[in-house]
Known about the structure:
This protein is α/β, with parallel strands linked by helices. It has one domain: Rossmann fold (3-Layer(aba) Sandwich). The protein contains four helices and four strands; from the N terminus they run E-H-E-H-H-E-E-H. The radius of gyration is 14 Å and the shape is globular. The model has no long low-confidence stretch (mean pLDDT 94). One of its GO terms (molecular function) is arsenate reductase (thioredoxin) activity. Pfam families: LMWPc.
Amino acid sequence: MKPKVAFICVHNSCRSQMAEALGKLLASDVFEAYSAGTELRPQINQDAVRIIKDLYKVDMNETQRSKLLDDIPEVDIVVKMGCNVVCPFLPSKHEEDWGLEDPSGKSDEEFIKTAKAIEEKVKDLARRIKNNEINL
Protein backbone atom coordinates (compact mmCIF):
# COMPACT_ATOMS: atom_id res chain seq x y z
CA MET A 1 0.00 0.00 0.00
CA LYS A 2 1.31 3.43 -0.91
CA PRO A 3 1.85 5.82 1.98
CA LYS A 4 -0.36 8.89 2.12
CA VAL A 5 1.39 12.25 2.30
CA ALA A 6 -0.33 15.44 3.44
CA PHE A 7 1.17 18.80 2.51
CA ILE A 8 -0.16 21.29 5.00
CA CYS A 9 -0.09 24.99 5.73
CA VAL A 10 -2.64 27.33 7.25
CA HIS A 11 -4.52 28.43 4.14
CA ASN A 12 -4.17 25.50 1.75
CA SER A 13 -4.20 27.85 -1.22
CA CYS A 14 -0.66 28.14 -2.53
CA ARG A 15 2.42 26.13 -1.47
CA SER A 16 0.54 23.09 -0.21
CA GLN A 17 -1.60 23.04 -3.35
CA MET A 18 1.49 23.25 -5.56
CA ALA A 19 3.00 20.37 -3.58
CA GLU A 20 -0.17 18.29 -3.97
CA ALA A 21 -0.16 18.89 -7.73
CA LEU A 22 3.53 18.04 -8.10
CA GLY A 23 3.22 15.04 -5.78
CA LYS A 24 0.48 13.65 -8.02
CA LEU A 25 2.40 14.49 -11.17
CA LEU A 26 5.88 13.29 -10.19
CA ALA A 27 5.42 10.69 -7.46
CA SER A 28 2.01 9.05 -7.77
CA ASP A 29 3.79 5.71 -8.17
CA VAL A 30 5.37 6.14 -4.71
CA PHE A 31 2.82 7.99 -2.57
CA GLU A 32 -0.68 9.45 -2.53
CA ALA A 33 -0.62 13.24 -2.29
CA TYR A 34 -3.09 15.38 -0.34
CA SER A 35 -3.07 18.94 0.85
CA ALA A 36 -5.04 20.70 3.56
CA GLY A 37 -5.06 23.61 5.97
CA THR A 38 -6.91 25.04 8.94
CA GLU A 39 -8.68 27.77 7.00
CA LEU A 40 -10.54 27.40 3.73
CA ARG A 41 -10.01 29.74 0.83
CA PRO A 42 -12.75 30.26 -1.77
CA GLN A 43 -10.21 29.42 -4.47
CA ILE A 44 -6.64 28.32 -4.89
CA ASN A 45 -4.11 31.12 -5.36
CA GLN A 46 -4.52 31.95 -9.05
CA ASP A 47 -0.87 32.92 -9.52
CA ALA A 48 0.08 29.46 -8.27
CA VAL A 49 -2.47 27.91 -10.65
CA ARG A 50 -1.06 29.87 -13.60
CA ILE A 51 2.58 29.05 -12.81
CA ILE A 52 1.91 25.32 -12.30
CA LYS A 53 -0.03 25.30 -15.58
CA ASP A 54 2.83 27.07 -17.40
CA LEU A 55 5.59 24.89 -15.96
CA TYR A 56 3.91 21.50 -15.65
CA LYS A 57 0.73 21.63 -17.79
CA VAL A 58 -1.46 20.81 -14.77
CA ASP A 59 -4.62 22.83 -14.12
CA MET A 60 -5.15 22.90 -10.37
CA ASN A 61 -8.46 24.72 -10.83
CA GLU A 62 -9.85 21.56 -12.38
CA THR A 63 -8.32 18.96 -10.08
CA GLN A 64 -7.94 20.58 -6.66
CA ARG A 65 -9.74 22.72 -4.12
CA SER A 66 -8.98 24.24 -0.74
CA LYS A 67 -9.51 21.59 1.98
CA LEU A 68 -9.54 21.42 5.76
CA LEU A 69 -7.50 18.89 7.73
CA ASP A 70 -10.70 16.96 8.44
CA ASP A 71 -11.43 16.65 4.73
CA ILE A 72 -8.54 14.32 3.99
CA PRO A 73 -7.96 10.70 5.03
CA GLU A 74 -5.56 9.65 7.76
CA VAL A 75 -2.00 10.07 6.52
CA ASP A 76 1.39 8.47 7.11
CA ILE A 77 3.58 11.48 6.41
CA VAL A 78 2.96 15.15 7.14
CA VAL A 79 4.94 17.81 5.33
CA LYS A 80 4.59 21.33 6.71
CA MET A 81 5.29 23.86 4.00
CA GLY A 82 6.83 26.36 6.40
CA CYS A 83 4.62 28.34 8.71
CA ASN A 84 5.81 31.44 10.45
CA VAL A 85 2.67 31.22 12.52
CA VAL A 86 1.55 28.09 14.33
CA CYS A 87 1.52 25.22 11.90
CA PRO A 88 -1.55 22.98 11.85
CA PHE A 89 -1.14 19.67 13.65
CA LEU A 90 -2.00 16.40 11.97
CA PRO A 91 -1.12 13.02 13.46
CA SER A 92 1.30 10.97 11.36
CA LYS A 93 4.17 8.50 11.56
CA HIS A 94 6.66 10.94 10.10
CA GLU A 95 6.69 14.73 9.95
CA GLU A 96 8.98 17.25 8.35
CA ASP A 97 8.97 20.98 7.70
CA TRP A 98 10.12 22.21 4.31
CA GLY A 99 10.38 25.82 5.49
CA LEU A 100 9.30 27.40 2.22
CA GLU A 101 8.32 31.04 2.14
CA ASP A 102 4.86 31.90 0.91
CA PRO A 103 5.17 33.56 -2.53
CA SER A 104 1.60 34.95 -2.36
CA GLY A 105 1.45 38.53 -3.58
CA LYS A 106 5.00 38.37 -4.92
CA SER A 107 6.40 38.23 -8.46
CA ASP A 108 6.13 35.33 -10.89
CA GLU A 109 9.85 34.79 -10.28
CA GLU A 110 9.10 33.97 -6.64
CA PHE A 111 6.34 31.57 -7.64
CA ILE A 112 8.59 29.82 -10.14
CA LYS A 113 11.36 29.57 -7.53
CA THR A 114 8.89 28.07 -5.04
CA ALA A 115 7.51 25.61 -7.61
CA LYS A 116 11.02 24.42 -8.52
CA ALA A 117 11.96 24.04 -4.84
CA ILE A 118 8.81 21.99 -4.24
CA GLU A 119 9.56 19.85 -7.31
CA GLU A 120 13.03 19.01 -5.96
CA LYS A 121 11.67 18.27 -2.48
CA VAL A 122 8.85 16.08 -3.82
CA LYS A 123 11.37 14.04 -5.84
CA ASP A 124 13.63 13.74 -2.80
CA LEU A 125 10.73 12.66 -0.59
CA ALA A 126 9.71 10.01 -3.13
CA ARG A 127 13.30 8.76 -3.25
CA ARG A 128 13.50 8.52 0.55
CA ILE A 129 10.19 6.65 0.75
CA LYS A 130 11.34 4.23 -1.96
CA ASN A 131 14.62 3.61 -0.16
CA ASN A 132 12.82 3.05 3.15
CA GLU A 133 14.70 5.96 4.69
CA ILE A 134 11.51 7.08 6.39
CA ASN A 135 10.20 4.98 9.24
CA LEU A 136 6.58 4.14 8.47
